[in-house]
Amino acid sequence: MNRLTVTLLALTFSNCVTVPKGEIEDLKPAVRAVHQSFRWKDFRGAAEMMVAERQEAFIKARTKLNDDKDLFITNFELEDAKLSPDMLVAKAVTRISWYRLPSTNEQTATVTSVFVWRDGIWQLESQDDGPFEDLKPAPKKKPAPVQPELAADAG
Questions:
Q1: Which of 50, 58, 87, 125 could pair with 21 in a Cys bridge, judged by C-beta atoms 3.0 to 4.6 Å apart?
Q2: Who contacts 91 (Cβ-Cβ below 8 Å, separation ≥6)?
Q3: Model's pTM, two decimal places?
Q4: Domain limits at 29?
């Protein structure tokens, strides 16, 4: 075989290998599964559907707040879900209602959950509102103020 043939074959087969990407059809059931786990207080099950770096802190926060006894998710409804152009990040908008004892006042929020496609599944990365403060995105760091250049020794 000549070099051109080998190169063309290599390019053809390399195009067959693609990076797996998430699909909207897989996202919606993942969103529902996470929220069902929240609703039925299956916090360990919910943690397993999160990115690894969030799991331990999530479980610790549920224990500290006594959420298995005091948190009641009364309703959730998926309103919208969209994928990023690269199909590796998704945002799901859900309306969630809950109360946490000793209060019996129900709160309702429209929550945007960020899911990332990792290891062939959608995993919850963060939520911007709702009953789980520990799932809020990390605050964005402000850039350090630019210091004016010190004037060169003028003397």
A1: 87
A2: 81, 82, 112, 113, 114, 115
A3: 0.76
A4: 20-133
Within a domain: 37: yes
What DSSP line would sit under 127-150, residue for residue?
Answer: ESSSS-GGGSPPPPPPPPPPPPPP
Listed in order, strand segments (DSSP E) in the chain are 71-83, 89-100, 107-118, 121-127
The 10s digit of each residue's pLDDT in 42-60 is 999 999 999 999 999 999 9
- As for how many domains the chain has, the answer is 1
pLDDT tens digits, residue range 85-107? 999 999 999 999 999 999 999 99
Nearest to 115 by CA among 126, 103, 99, 128: 126
Q: Please, which residues have CB within 8 angstroms of residue 143's CB and are 6 or more apart in sequence?
A: none
- Whether 98 and 24 have beta carbons less than 8 Å apart is answered as no
Nearest alpha-carbon partner for 50 in 75, 31, 73, 22: 31
Residue positions counted in the chain: 155
DSSP class of residue 50 equals B
The Cα-based distances of 14 to 9, 18, 19, 88, 107 in angstroms read 8, 8, 11, 21, 52
